[in-house]
Amino acid sequence: MARERGDRGERDSRDQGMVDFVVKIKRSACVVKGGRRFSFNALVVVGDKQGKVSFGYGKANEVPPAVEKAIKEGEQQARRTKKLSLRGDSIPHRVIGKYGASKVILVPAGAGTGLKAGPGVREVLQAAGIANILTKVHGSTNPINLVKATINGLQQLRTKEEVAALRGVKL
């Protein structure tokens, strides 16, 4: 579930053009001699809303430093990833992303359909700039695995021109 920031649960990152969504914050406890010591884990999705998307995972003793660490890691990964092949504000073809026990099916949709996706998948698609898509999750609903499976599915996308070049045919 994205944390509410402004009206859409998003915020501008330090780099211009990058936006981040907090997908999940978890609290873990370690029992020590004097009681419990709490720490926090943050899962954040970072993207430029134009086809570049990645995620970051940060851990700290308080929530704000954990989120900052996750954003920093996500921005570094976003620089290394290639831009996705999109068709307008949707995807060019149906694709299945898998990671661990999670499977995410991404189906292109016509204009005006909107973003039909659950938590975890929705944040990745918003950060990538996809506005019209249908999704279905099978298997595990662990947020980390869902984010990784969605990114895996998006990286499998190819345009007609890319497929034609790979096959050595002319359109």
From TrEMBL:
Mitochondrion is among the record's keywords: no
A biological process term (GO) from this entry: translation
Species assigned in the record: Limnoglobus roseus
Subunit details: Part of the 30S ribosomal subunit. Contacts proteins S4 and S8.
Gene3D superfamilies in the cross-refs: 3.30.160.20, 3.30.230.10
InterPro entries the record matches: Ribosomal_Su5_D2-typ_SF (IPR020568), Ribosomal_uS5 (IPR000851), Ribosomal_uS5_bac-type (IPR005712), Ribosomal_uS5_C (IPR005324), Ribosomal_uS5_N (IPR013810), Ribosomal_uS5_N_CS (IPR018192), Ribsml_uS5_D2-typ_fold_subgr (IPR014721)
Key word Ion transport present: no
Domain remarks in the Swiss-Prot or TrEMBL record: The N-terminal domain interacts with the head of the 30S subunit; the C-terminal domain interacts with the body and contacts protein S4. The interaction surface between S4 and S5 is involved in control of translational fidelity.
SUPFAM superfamilies reported in the protein's UniProt record: dsRNA-binding domain-like, Ribosomal protein S5 domain 2-like
Keywords recorded for this protein, A-Z: Ribonucleoprotein, Ribosomal protein, RNA-binding, rRNA-binding
Lineage: Bacteria, Pseudomonadati, Planctomycetota, Planctomycetia, Gemmatales
Function: With S4 and S12 plays an important role in translational accuracy.
HAMAP family, A to Z: Ribosomal_uS5_B (MF_01307_B)
GO cellular component: cytoplasm; small ribosomal subunit
Family per record: Belongs to the universal ribosomal protein uS5 family.
Pfam annotation, one family: Ribosomal_S5
PANTHER family, sorted: MITOCHONDRIAL RIBOSOMAL PROTEIN S5
Protein name: Small ribosomal subunit protein uS5
TM region positions: none
Domain spans labelled S5 DRBM: 18-81
GO molecular function: rRNA binding; structural constituent of ribosome
